[in-house]
Amino acid sequence: MFDIIKKSKLWFSISSVAILLAMAAFGFNYFVHGRAMNFGIDFTGGTMLSLRFEKPVDLAAVRHILDDYKLGESIIQKTEGENNDVLIRTIPLENEIRAKIISDLNSKVSKAEILEADIIGPTIGKELSQQAVWALLIASIGIIIYVSFRFEFFYALAALLALYHDAIITTGIMALLYRTIDVTFVAAILTIMGYSINDTIVIFDRIRENLKKPNLAKKKFSELVNISIWETMARSINTVLTVIVMVLCLLLLGGETLREFSLTLLIGFTLGACSSIFVAPPLLVLWHTWESKR
């Protein structure tokens, strides 16, 4: 049986390098693009257009028109229940540019009527940013309370560090790819945290069970943790593969609207499966070793 815990220094080194690369991606974007991440209009403000076409249109055709104005990363989606209604969310547009876009849509796609044109100001974007931070903080506090209640405080701390490991590296990869960051990204990060903590708790629960078994309780704590990891390995692999298959389907078939969300989930779920095995348990062993030497 391969000793995962014995290679803890290797796993910590890989994680540290990945986190440093994530930080480097933020710095690279700042010097190249002028900002650390490609924040969408949810955070920066922008223009929202609600259009009604005379006939059903292909969203790809609408995006092709926007590409001509370098607005290809705009969010384009059909309004639920109305096949001919399309919602476009993009960067702030001057009235002249907006008129040209509507004119091109009329001539090249289908005659379009503006139902609504709103501007999302930077104030609203700032409020959304603050709400996103609060959501992450509240989720973190909830996780600490829950895991501490079920296990011990350091179990909660190890699990939370593993979650932040996933969140930071996922964010760094999205920054490196310079993908659009909006409220769906925050939802994806919270979803990843929920998945990762569940996988970690399964391993922690097995560790607690094995501590009660006379034949295993006599073993060194690091050996017991390694045994617990391998006992839950099949479950962890089967779970992550099932989830990844579903997310891949969402990424490939879900359309442009869900692409950023599903890509974030794909990266985060993969990292979450790894951190629940190679980060959280080794941190637990590290704490136990430190406690035993006190």
UniProtKB/TrEMBL annotation:
Keyword terms: Cell membrane, Membrane, Protein transport, Translocation, Transmembrane, Transmembrane helix, Transport
A cellular-component GO term for this protein: plasma membrane
Pfam families: Sec_GG (PF07549), SecD_SecF_C (PF02355)
GO MF assignments: protein-transporting ATPase activity
UniProt topology in membrane: Multi-pass membrane protein
Subcellular location: Cell membrane
InterPro entries: SecD/SecF_arch_bac (IPR022813), SecD/SecF_bac (IPR022645), SecD/SecF_CS (IPR022646), SecD_SecF_C (IPR048634), SecD_SecF_C_bact (IPR055344), SecF_bac (IPR005665)
Annotated Gene3D superfamilies: Multidrug efflux transporter AcrB transmembrane domain (1.20.1640.10)
SUPFAM superfamilies with a match to the protein in the record: Multidrug efflux transporter AcrB transmembrane domain
Ranges annotated as spanning the membrane: 12-32, 132-149, 184-204, 237-255, 261-287
One GO BP: protein targeting
Protein export membrane protein SecD/SecF C-terminal domain segment(s): 106-289
HAMAP family: SecF_B
Subunit field text: Forms a complex with SecD. Part of the essential Sec protein translocation apparatus which comprises SecA, SecYEG and auxiliary proteins SecDF. Other proteins may also be involved.
Main function: Part of the Sec protein translocase complex. Interacts with the SecYEG preprotein conducting channel. SecDF uses the proton motive force (PMF) to complete protein translocation after the ATP-dependent function of SecA.
Family membership: Belongs to the SecD/SecF family. SecF subfamily.
Protein name: Protein-export membrane protein SecF
Gene this protein is translated from: secF
